[in-house]
Model the fold of this input.
Amino acid sequence: NNLKRKTKIMFLASILILAFILSGCYDAKELDEYTYVIAVGIDKGVTDSYRLTIKFHTMKGGGGGETGGATGADYEILTIDAPTFFTGINMINSSIARELNFMHTKTLVFSKEIAETGVSTYVAPIVRFRQMRHSMHVVVSKGSAYEFLEKYEPIEGNAISKALELIVKETSEKGYIAHTRLHDFYIGLKSTYRQPIAILAGINNMNNFIEGSSEQKVEHNEKKGYTAGEIPRKGGGNVEFYGTAVFNGDKMIGELTGEETRILNLITGEFRRGNFSIEDPYYPDKFVPVDIRMEREPKVKTEIKGEKVFIDVNMSLEGDI
Done:
């Protein structure tokens, strides 16, 4: 009897195990059943709390390859007003054939208006969303997030996801932006000893490029640095990543210029290599270009004396004139 009972138990257990194994792929989906989101933008809503903008691959150009169509042919943007982030996703899913997938999202963009009123309400649910990688970059756009995503197009090729990744990487290595990812930003929000920062972006309408006499250009060069959207240039894309958005808690309280961001990166040890133009002490109207590299991580010591905080930073740099 005991043997028969054990045999029955083993038989039933085997059936249960096989049932789980054989039904393991019931919810599987093919890659072409998803719409892969490249970037997410959040503005203050008009008819509802959120104005959610997504930029996504349309798969028209073969999934974002470098050939097979004109630049910009393989991605599109879509905007919707919704009460919450996830409700907005569901509403968008009801209007497109494929299901939205955020596993390859590169950038999270907040408008400056949202950043100045507080972003914790928007960041908290995004951080808990399992599809959102914490390695995505956090950007504050000086204009609307919708305009930022609408205007951003890669100059080289049409692989926008790769272009976003490369432009942030190259600009951060030169020190003009802080390489802020969602994980770093969220830790800054929760931290009791530091504040969050984000990449500052803007739309450059090329108005600061002055086509006139050299005297006009010299006068314009007296400006003490630029932030995103202010660089005097002509040509290239309209979107710029330049400078830093500074937060106190979850509210943006100010901006750092590109040069100030370089100093910040030097202090934090994030700077790698770049050229600095130092004013010639003997000829104030001339500059000495210096190629500076960080030799080792900086040493930072902090001391509190009375009501004042004293910070001592020891940096080891190498340079070539």
Q: What stands out?
A: DSSP finds nine helices and twelve strands in the chain. The two ends are 92 Å apart (CA to CA). The mean pLDDT is 83.
